[in-house]
Design goal:
The chain is built from seven helices and 19 strands. By secondary structure, the chain is an alpha+beta fold. The chain folds into three domains: 90 residues, Pseudouridine synthase (2-Layer Sandwich), CATH 3.30.2350; 151 residues, Pseudouridine synthase (2-Layer Sandwich); 62 residues, PUA domain (Archaeosine Trna-guanine Transglycosylase, Chain: A, domain 4), CATH 2.30.130. Strands 1, 2, 3, 4, 7, 10, 11, 12, 13 and 14 form a ten-stranded mixed beta sheet that branches. A five-stranded mixed beta sheet has the order 15-17-18-19-16. The protein is globular, with a radius of gyration of 23 Å.
């Protein structure tokens, strides 16, 4: 049972909780995910099963896509709807957007200013480790830790309101912006929401978050935990289990003869004699047997025209 499951994570569970449930449902001890979703968030969670857990490094850096609701009017200590409301400091962003008009061009300018390569400071309530401890562990102890900004890429950050309405007004004088976001791995959407609010002169937090894509996998590929239970019960897991080769289809591939398969399974480098070699050093390449089964992921050495197996997936047919 080696492959990749795309789970539609429900709200209220951690990503670790979802993986634990997957293990129990399918009866497989080895399982892990490629990118954490906060407990309140929903959507695409890529779960690796069996030997495919060895492939996490080639999937965890995939681009992500989200649908989000940003609430303008006040900030929270966690940056999302699960946190405690923070009252604005005297004279600093004390006026909520619900009490004054906001020009469309101001909203568009705030969105545009956060596109492209930007620096983000990881939030205290995050799983990022500093000095061996996760930041949220420090936060729960009331400790504020100095964090270094990280560079992320926001390729899309746009309003997704209907009928031309950018902001939806709420009864409590707050406003909601529905947004679509495409960003690099490691982006903190909560921080993006807070920074958006600051550009409009208001506190802000992330009200809702749904991941709709992780790399090549979209929400249309995802199944719920309940659906996973059903397919396992009907002995049709293979219908929703993506093969390791399919999961890495974004990488170039090379098909190996029997002798080369054996060498690869023993971790030995393989000389590439093809005249159309154009892979740079460091390029990850799928190494497959003649039946298209992934047996390893190799790393190119362009100077020597070698592919060195980096992660071996044993069990190729016929070997």
């Amino acid at each position: 049972m080696d492959g990749v499951l795309i789970i539609d994570k429900p709200a209220g569970l951690t990503s670790h909780d979802v993986v634990a449930r997957v293990r129990k449902i399918i009866g497989e001890r080895k399982a892990g995910h490629t990118g954490t979703l906060d407990p309140f968030a929903t959507g695409v969670l890529v779960v690796l099963v069996g030997r495919a857990t060895r492939l996490a490094r080639f999937l965890s850096g995939a681009e992500k896509e989200y649908e989000a609701v940003i609430r303008l009017g006040y900030a929270t200590d966690t940056g999302d709807a699960t946190g405690t409301r923070l009252e604005p400091a005297s004279g600093l962003m004390a006026e909520t957007l619900g009490r004054r008009s906001v020009r469309r061009e101001d909203v568009e300018s705030a969105l545009a200013g956060l596109r492209g390569e930007i620096k983000q400071t990881p939030p205290m309530y995050s799983a990022k480790k500093v000095a061996g401890r996760k930041l949220y562990e420090h936060a729960r102890r009331g400790e504020e830790i100095e964090r270094q900004p990280i560079l992320v890429n926001i390729s899309r950050f746009e309003a997704a309101g209907q009928d031309g309405v950018l902001l939806t007004q709420n009864d409590d004088s707050t406003s909601d912006l529905s947004a679509r976001i495409i960003c690099s791995a490691g982006t903190y959407v909560r921080t993006l929401a807070e920074d958006f609010g600051r550009r409009l002169g208001s506190g802000a937090h992330l009200r809702e978050l749904r991941r709709t894509r992780a790399g090549k996998f979209t929400i249309k590929d995802a199944i719920t935990l309940e659906q996973l239970t059903e397919v396992v019960g009907s002995a049709s897991l293979e219908q929703v289990l993506n093969s390791p080769d399919e999961a890495l289809s974004h990488l170039p591939s090379v098909d190996l003869s029997g002798d080369h398969v054996v060498r690869t399974l023993h971790g030995l480098g393989m000389q590439i004699e093809e005249t159309n070699w154009d892979w740079p050093s460091g390029q990850a390449v799928r190494m497959r047997d003649m039946k298209g089964n992934l047996i390893a992921v190799g790393i190119c050495d362009a100077e020597q025209k070698l592919i060195h197996p980096r992660v071996v997936i044993r069990g190729a047919e016929g070997v």
